[in-house]
Amino acid sequence: MADRYLSFTGTAPGRFLTRRLGLPQPAALRRWAPEHPLPEGDLLHLRAGKSDLELAGTGLPPARSTDRPAAVLLDATGITDIKGLDEVHAALHPVVRSVAASGRVVVLGAPLDPADHHQAAAQQALEGLTRSLGKEIGRGRTVNLVRLTDAIAAESTLRFLLSPKSAYVSGQVIEVGAGQITAPDDWDRPLAGRTALVTGAARGIGEAVAETLARDGARVVVLDVPQAEEDARRVAERLGGTALALDITAADAGERIVGALPDGLDVLIHNAGITRDRRLVNMPADRWSSVLEVNLASVLRTTDALLATGALTPGGRIVATASIAGIAGNAGQTNYGASKAGIVGLVRSLAPRALAEHGVTVNAVAPGFIETGMTAAIPLFIREAGRRMNSLAQGGLPADVAETTAWLAHPASGAVNGQVVRVCGQSLLGA
Percent helix, strand, coil in the chain (nearest 5)? Predict the structure, then answer.
């Protein structure tokens, strides 16, 4: 459903009226498209503190002096004390206002040092800076923090966060650790030669994820329930992939997936999910258990089966779908919130073991208010509240979740593991 308020605020009368009334003023976001895949403008490199981080070789544009940067990259990895935070202010203060609309600010920080509480305090302060700046910067601009030790390991992450692909990702803290990095031959088609399975892919966000992975070169397997087989086949044919009609809650679902993929699987996207909303006091057991079964139990069973059989190849990626409802909670969704919080627990526990034992990373995306058929059915005033209660003052699109998923599925994202990345425009809920 079209966001008429967003369209109205893009007009001269709309800007005047909303400014006078103190109403939200969302800016139309500049998202990825074939005709403009990169930021339209220069990337400004800044530094605060003493840092030996080497950004050369990351594929990022060279440092430039510009009065209106499309993106700002601040290296604050060398900040070790509170005095160093003054340098962060001195670096950002003169340039924040000049960042172009739909621009990017990415702060680079270091892991917190448990043996140095001064360094840990200063580096943790960067998180408060990032989240606060994201809420005030406006005009469709985003602010994110990346904690890293090796810029090469973070190349895919920096490319994503500085690009139009991350339009609805803001106020996030992403840690880039150790892991096998496989730079693609072609950064425009990084998944070429790889097979990706997306559950719940016949429509909505799952369909958008399948489309984006296919764009990036993957051979996509579109999995959905037998009742949606016709839609799944239509999507698969359009993307040059294959359809798999399967009830993901079936006890043998994992074994059937393995049987359908004799050559193995490189990317597993757990997207299938349902809602059965009702307040807990009015929720019968079947509404509770059905949501937990689809959204969480099936994810655990199929993941275990695919890892145990070796169907997920070394260098593989698992990306599950959580939700801000599982992070912040949501009235009337105790079942859904529980299931999505369970996904967060799965990621945090399994990620280090899956990487060590199978060479597979495990991450999650946590969407906020995304414009889908499901949210279009929400009553008007609740829908408007969902759209405006984030730093970008608008709903996201399925493509925003898909682009974030594709970054986590990237072969060069092997050092991104155990992360739960919110795709919510920096929702005010749980922020």
Answer: 40, 20, 40
- Residue 175, phi then psi, degrees to nearest 5: -105, 130
The tokens for 381 are: 């005033």
Q: Is 379 exposed, middle or buried (0-12, 13-18, 19+ CB in 10 A)?
A: exposed
Q: How many helices (H) and strands (E) does the chain have?
A: 15, 12
Half-sphere exposure of 64 (CA within 13 A, CB side): 13
Beta-strand ranges (E) seen in 103-250 are 104-109, 142-147, 173-175, 195-199, 219-224, 242-245
Secondary structure (DSSP) of 311-356? -EEEEEEEEEE--HHHHH--TT-HHHHHHHHHHHHHHHHHHHHHHH
Told to judge if 336 belongs to the known catalytic residues of this protein, a careful annotator would answer yes
Q: Residue 375 is encoded by which pair of tokens?
A: 């949210």
What is the C-alpha to C-alpha distance for residues 337 and 330, in angstroms, rounded to an integer? 7
Q: What is the pTM of this model?
A: 0.96
Roughly what angle, to the nearest 10 degrees, separates helices 204-215 and 398-409?
A: 50
Tens-digit pLDDT profile for the chain (431 aa)? Answer: 788 888 888 899 988 888 888 888 899 999 999 888 778 888 999 999 998 888 876 777 766 667 789 999 999 999 999 999 999 999 999 999 999 999 999 999 999 999 999 999 999 999 999 999 999 999 999 999 999 999 999 999 999 999 999 999 999 999 999 878 888 999 999 999 999 999 999 999 999 999 999 999 999 999 999 999 999 999 999 999 999 999 999 999 999 999 999 999 999 999 999 999 999 999 999 999 999 999 999 999 999 999 999 999 999 999 999 999 999 999 999 999 999 999 999 999 999 999 999 999 999 999 999 998 777 667 777 788 888 999 999 999 999 999 999 999 999 999 999 999 999 999 987 75
88: nearest Cα among 121, 143, 125, 117: 125
Residue 296 phi, psi dihedral angles, 5° rounding: -130, -55
Q: How deeply is 95 buried, as exposed, middle or buried, from its count of CB atoms within 10 A (0-12, 13-18, 19+)?
A: middle
Question: Contact at 8 Å (CB) between 222 and 243?
Answer: yes
Distance, CA of 293 to CA of 251 (rounded, Å): 11
- End-to-end CA distance of the chain: give it in Å, rounded: 26
Which entry of 336, 351, 365, 427 is annotated as an active-site residue? 336
